[in-house]
Amino acid sequence: MPSGDEVTIRQARPEDATICGPICFEAFSAINQRHGFPCDFPGSEATTSLLTRIFTHPKFYAVVAEAGGRIAGSNGLDERSIIAGVGPITVDPQLQNSGVGRRLMQAVLERARKRGFAGVRLVQAAFHNRSLSLYASLGFDVREPLSCMQGRTTQRSLPGCVVRTAQPGDLDACNALARRVHGFDRSHELADALPLGTPLVVERGGHITGYASALAFFGHAVAETNLDLQALIASADAFAGAGILVPSRNSTLFRWCIAQGLRVMQPMTLMSMGLYNEPAGAWLPSILF
């Protein structure tokens, strides 16, 4: 098995996705199965499609690791905000515990440092002790326990709240809301989602009080209050991917989700390095941050 010193890191090319996609699926499948959790992805086609989008997106920086003449894993850095999001980082199960993951992390953190991002964040599977230890050793702080939740709420709407599909004209209000809650916005991410038709807004009292880029594993949401976030969640027929990420410390929201019939699929952890403001409202992170 190669050591970390024998690993070469280079920028990912679009054609690498056909190799990295199956590695990504196998890595997630192996660790989740080992701990008794369902895989975050339905198959290698989904991870190949995901990595193709990341490897070709102008606002993502992606790297691959090569060891022994073959690709051993990959990692990505979402550069669409003043906060950079890491992931998905995966290493070939046969080459894990050999320093490949650390090298992949160091590569994107060096990129973030050179580009001057105010902070870097990631979400890790709370049951994965090795990744938790790795990220902590690299300087990440634990910020929020999360519960990945799936299902469909019994309540389909909330009184006084109107949920509708977001329009381009809503972006300014959504971005202003994100800045009030988090101290920064995710305008490029939200704009990217508009053509997909996934963003939603909730209106209460005649103005926008919350939005979601998507109610999904790779979507985030921001709202003035739990009521607004509950209205967004209740409007969804299904959550795409593994589910939505609910901050477990938001006891009111968490208990409401449970009472509405949502089930916890797995525990996760939001970690950060650099700028972090305690959110001043209700929110859901994406799997990136």
Count structural domains. 2
- Which fold name corresponds to the CATH topology of the largest domain? Aminopeptidase
**How many strands in all?**
14
Share of residues in helices: 25-40%
Mean pLDDT: 95
Q: Treating each run of at least 4 consecutive H or I residues as one helix, how many helices? A: 8
Provide the gyration radius in Å: 19 Å
In the CATH hierarchy, the architecture of the largest domain is 3-Layer(aba) Sandwich
User: What is the H-and-E element order?
Assistant: EHHEEEEHEHEEHHEEEHEHEE
Strand content: 25-35%
Oligomer state of the chains in this structure: single chain
Structural class estimated from helices and strands = alpha+beta
Low-confidence stretches: none
Biggest sheet details: 9 strands, mixed
What does this protein look like?
The protein has 289 residues and is of the alpha+beta class. The protein folds into two domains: 4-117, Gcn5-related N-acetyltransferase (GNAT) (Aminopeptidase, 3-Layer(aba) Sandwich); 149-267 and 274-284, Aminopeptidase. Helix content is 32%, strand content 28%. The protein is built from eight helices and 14 strands. The chain has helices at 17-34, 44-56, 100-115, 129-137, 171-182, 187-193, 226-234, 251-259; strands at residues 8-11, 60-67, 70-78, 83-86, 90-91, 119-125, 141-150, 162-165, 200-204, 207-212, 221-223, 244-247, 263-274, 282-284. The strands form two sheets. Strands 1, 2, 3, 4, 5, 6, 7, 12 and 13 form a nine-stranded mixed β-sheet that branches. A five-stranded antiparallel β-sheet has the order 8-9-10-11-14, sandwiched between helices. Strand 10 and strand 11 form a beta hairpin. Helix 1 (17-34) crosses helix 2 (44-56). The longest helix has 18 residues, at 17-34. It is globular and about 60 Å long. 47% of the residues are buried.
